[in-house]
Amino acid sequence: MTQPENSRAGFVALIGEPNAGKSTLLNRMVGAKVSIVTHKVQTTRARIRGVALEGASQIVFVDTPGLFRPRRRLDRAMVAAAWSGAADADVVVLLIEAHRGLTEGVEAILEALNERAPDRPVALAINKIDRVKSEALLALTEKLNAAYPFTKTFMISAERGHGVDHLREWLAQEVPAGPWLYPEDQIADLPMRMIAAEITREKLTLRLHQELPYQLTVETESWEERKDGTVRIDQLIYVIRDGHKGIVLGNKGETIKAVSQASRAELTEFLGRTVHLFLQVKVRPNWLEERERFSEMGLDFNDGD
């Protein structure tokens, strides 16, 4: 791994309310899809690290689960993971949706930031700026900076890429001086088995709409490297009821077939080789209370207490 003499490296936590655009920003920063992106809230469960290079700096982004009021064990573990990611980071970026502004949820995050990350530089990134007029944007910026002493404020559109380069350049100067933490060609520190499971879970979430996105999980059961250069991936989809299994399978298996095709196509593109994907749906009524399932998602079971 060749590194410049003046190398810098550090962790940057992306925090915010659910659906603020954190995963989209992470993927834009890294230049590849490493985090699940859907129109639904609370889709990121684990702290997904994406690695980006900017000049002599290596920026390790931590895409945390959205911060919200937790109700279940899984919710509590997700929120704990988000704050843990912020506390461990060198720099924190708070992402706020321009059209939603200073919500009660954002106010709660600002209040908690003083306790959870008191010594960290915190940048404000106002996202989805194309949805509001410039006068409203200026007023919102003043209001937010009056509510919290942000180190820097950025106006961005994570989806379109506006302002993202400026944010990345600033972060490159903010991370500490030191050797890079990951190989130059590595874009994420998640095991490929987990990335593969996340890709399939995204396809399920998109396909099933409002039916049961938070009551299923995907695990990569086996990963077989074949002599011809292809890979066979077997995955289990856990649901909590028999009725949910029927929804995932769909009429004559149409839903699971469409999910499998979409996931296989993306995995093939992501890995750069042919993927043979096999999906199986299993009913596991208590998976939301099983320690092993939390470990598979990169979450601490005890954080849900």
TrEMBL record:
<dbReference type="InterPro" id="IPR027417">
    <property type="entry name" value="P-loop_NTPase"/>
</dbReference>
<keyword id="KW-0472">Membrane</keyword>
<keyword id="KW-1003">Cell membrane</keyword>
<dbReference type="InterPro" id="IPR004044">
    <property type="entry name" value="KH_dom_type_2"/>
</dbReference>
<protein>
    <recommendedName>
        <fullName>GTPase Era</fullName>
    </recommendedName>
</protein>
<keyword id="KW-0690">Ribosome biogenesis</keyword>
<dbReference type="GO" id="GO:0043024">
    <property type="term" value="F:ribosomal small subunit binding"/>
</dbReference>
<dbReference type="GO" id="GO:0005886">
    <property type="term" value="C:plasma membrane"/>
</dbReference>
<keyword id="KW-0547">Nucleotide-binding</keyword>
<feature type="region of interest" description="G1">
    <location>
        <begin position="16"/>
        <end position="23"/>
    </location>
</feature>
<feature type="region of interest" description="G5">
    <location>
        <begin position="156"/>
        <end position="158"/>
    </location>
</feature>
<dbReference type="GO" id="GO:0005829">
    <property type="term" value="C:cytosol"/>
</dbReference>
<dbReference type="GO" id="GO:0003924">
    <property type="term" value="F:GTPase activity"/>
</dbReference>
<dbReference type="InterPro" id="IPR030388">
    <property type="entry name" value="G_ERA_dom"/>
</dbReference>
<keyword id="KW-0699">rRNA-binding</keyword>
<dbReference type="GO" id="GO:0000028">
    <property type="term" value="P:ribosomal small subunit assembly"/>
</dbReference>
<dbReference type="InterPro" id="IPR006073">
    <property type="entry name" value="GTP-bd"/>
</dbReference>
<feature type="binding site">
    <location>
        <begin position="127"/>
        <end position="130"/>
    </location>
    <ligand>
        <name>GTP</name>
    </ligand>
</feature>
<dbReference type="GO" id="GO:0070181">
    <property type="term" value="F:small ribosomal subunit rRNA binding"/>
</dbReference>
<keyword id="KW-0342">GTP-binding</keyword>
<dbReference type="InterPro" id="IPR005225">
    <property type="entry name" value="Small_GTP-bd"/>
</dbReference>
<comment type="subunit">
    <text>Monomer.</text>
</comment>
<comment type="function">
    <text>An essential GTPase that binds both GDP and GTP, with rapid nucleotide exchange. Plays a role in 16S rRNA processing and 30S ribosomal subunit biogenesis and possibly also in cell cycle regulation and energy metabolism.</text>
</comment>
<feature type="region of interest" description="G3">
    <location>
        <begin position="63"/>
        <end position="66"/>
    </location>
</feature>
<keyword id="KW-0963">Cytoplasm</keyword>
<dbReference type="GO" id="GO:0005525">
    <property type="term" value="F:GTP binding"/>
</dbReference>
<dbReference type="InterPro" id="IPR005662">
    <property type="entry name" value="GTPase_Era-like"/>
</dbReference>
<dbReference type="InterPro" id="IPR009019">
    <property type="entry name" value="KH_sf_prok-type"/>
</dbReference>
<feature type="binding site">
    <location>
        <begin position="63"/>
        <end position="67"/>
    </location>
    <ligand>
        <name>GTP</name>
    </ligand>
</feature>
<feature type="domain" description="Era-type G">
    <location>
        <begin position="8"/>
        <end position="177"/>
    </location>
</feature>
<feature type="binding site">
    <location>
        <begin position="16"/>
        <end position="23"/>
    </location>
    <ligand>
        <name>GTP</name>
    </ligand>
</feature>
<feature type="region of interest" description="G2">
    <location>
        <begin position="42"/>
        <end position="46"/>
    </location>
</feature>
<comment type="similarity">
    <text>Belongs to the TRAFAC class TrmE-Era-EngA-EngB-Septin-like GTPase superfamily. Era GTPase family.</text>
</comment>
<dbReference type="InterPro" id="IPR015946">
    <property type="entry name" value="KH_dom-like_a/b"/>
</dbReference>
<dbReference type="Pfam" id="PF07650">
    <property type="entry name" value="KH_2"/>
</dbReference>
<keyword id="KW-0694">RNA-binding</keyword>
<dbReference type="Pfam" id="PF01926">
    <property type="entry name" value="MMR_HSR1"/>
</dbReference>
<feature type="region of interest" description="G4">
    <location>
        <begin position="127"/>
        <end position="130"/>
    </location>
</feature>
<feature type="domain" description="KH type-2">
    <location>
        <begin position="208"/>
        <end position="285"/>
    </location>
</feature>
